[in-house]
Known about the structure:
Layout: E1 10-11, E2 54-60, H1 67-81, E3 85-91, H2 111-119, E4 127-130, H3 146-154, E5 160-169, E6 174-183, E7 187-188, E8 191-199, E9 202-207, E10 217-223, E11 226-231, E12 237-240, E13 243-244, E14 249-256, E15 267-275, E16 281-288
Parallel strand pairs: 2-3
Antiparallel strand pairs: 1-14, 2-4, 5-6, 6-14, 7-13, 8-11, 8-12, 8-15, 9-10, 15-16
Amino acid sequence: MKTIFSIFVIASFPFFIASCDKIEGPYMNENNTVDTAECPVPDFPAFSNPQHKVLLEEFTGHKCPNCPIGASTAHDLLVTYADQLAVVAFHAGYFATPDNNGDFTANYSTTEGEELATYFSVIANPIGLVNRKKFNSAFLINPGDWNTAISNIISQSPQMYLQTISQSKNQDSSFCIHTKINYLENMSGNFNLCVLITEDSIISPQKTNDPNYPSGTISNFSHNHVFRKVLGGLWGKCIATTQVYKDSAYVQSYKLIPQPAWNLTHCEIISFVYNTDTEEIIQVDKTSLLDN
C-alpha cells in the first residue's frame, strides 16, 4: 500500500467508522488542511437513487500526434454518460515535455502526473485507467476499449454515495471544498479519498496525424480536463480501515487557493474514493469549482 503523507482535519458525523490515525485540529495549511471555523461544514442535500459513477484517467501530451484521438474519445464518452463519468487528463512523459521556444512551450506536466504514470507503467500515449480496475488483465486501457470498460462498471449498484460542495471565500480568493461519503452497504478494506482540480478549454498547440492538418499541428487545440492540482497528496486521505458500515457517513474539508493562471469558470472538482488494497475506485463525484 502506498505511503500517505498528508494530514487533515476531519469533521465526521456521529456514526461508527473504522478510523484511520489522525491529528485533531483545527489547523490551516494552504491547500491542505482547513480550519472548520473558517470553513464550517455545510448542510449536504438529501439524496435518492444514487448512481455508480466512473473516473477515466487519460494520459496524454501536447507533442503526441495520436492523442487528439484520445481526447475526442473522452469527449464522446462524456456526451454518452454525462454526470456518471468524470475525466482527468494527466500530461506526462516524453510527449508532455515543453520546449524552450516554438509551438510547444506550454507546460501541463506535473510531478503528480509523472508519479502516477510511473506507478502504472505508462510508456505510450494516449492510454487510460478506468476506475483503476483491470480490463483484460491490465490496468492500462487503449481508447478503443474505454467505452466497454466503462459500461462494464457503470451499470453496477453503487456501494457509496459521494457529494462535493465548493464555497468561494471572497475575502482571500480561496475556496472551501467539502466532501461527504455515505456508505450504502457494509464494506471491508482500506479506503482513501482523493480530490483533484482540473481545467477545461485551455487553448494551445497540439501535435496531430490528422491529414486535415498538413503541418502536423493543431494551433488552437482545446486541452480539456487538464490536471491542475490535488488536495492532500496524490494518493489521498485515509478515511477508513478494515470495516465500514451501511448508513454511516464521513465528511472531509479542504482549503484551495487557486493559481492566478487558472480560468475558474473552466475548473472542476473531481472527488473519488478508492480501495488501497486493490487500487479500484469505488465511487466518483464531479462538480464545478464555481458551483456554489
